Structures are given as C-alpha cells and as structure tokens.
TrEMBL record:
Residues 11-107 form the Malonyl-CoA:ACP transacylase (MAT) domain. SUPFAM superfamilies: Probable ACP-binding domain of malonyl-CoA ACP transacylase. Pfam families: Acyl_transf_1 (PF00698). Keywords: Fatty acid biosynthesis, Fatty acid metabolism, Lipid biosynthesis, Lipid metabolism, Multifunctional enzyme, NADP, Oxidoreductase, Phosphopantetheine. It comes from the Eukaryota. This is Malonyl-CoA:ACP transacylase (MAT) domain-containing protein.
Amino acid sequence: MNDEVINCWYRCAYGDGVITAEQAVLIAYARGWATKNTKLIPGLMASVGLSLEECQALLPDDIFVACHNSIDNVTISGPEESITRFAEKLLNRGIFLRIVKTANIAFQ
C-alpha cells in the first residue's frame, strides 16, 4: 500500500499539532485494517490538470472530485474501469492526467 497517499492527511494533522502521535498511529492502523478487511470494488484515483469547474463539467456520474488541489488541478476518485476510460479521453485531448498509486482503492 502506498503510505504517502494513505497517511498524508493524518501526518499533516500530527505535524500541525491537531492530533497526538498515538492518535495518528491508531488512525493508520484502523484505516489499514478496514482497507484490508472490507470488500471494495477496484478503484483508482488520478490527478487531473483542470480547474474544479472544468473537471466537474466532464465527469461521468460515477467519478467524483476527491480533492481540489489548486486553481488548475484536482484529484478524482472512482471505479477502476470508469477512471481508465475517462483518463484515456482526457489524455487524447492533451489534458494532463496521472494515475495515483493507491493499491486499486479509490480513497475519499
């Protein structure tokens, strides 16, 4: 599992003093346990070089914006097949897109 993707939000919370080290470890454990023991459909996430509004106008119904990163970049999340088809469509139009390695789990 890609620790940088999975753990980033609570590492930031710990770094900002919002949660304790013990709480961060418990969150990491609980999320890992739930991820491993829950039957989820295969999913993907991807970074897209579009504004929030531009991306939302193009998204299929089963793909969602997981994170609004900047004025011209969002992270999307959804079923593996849908993200793959959408990625091909955007790449064919010359739009930046990079699949995020998340062990085939669409987080957020």
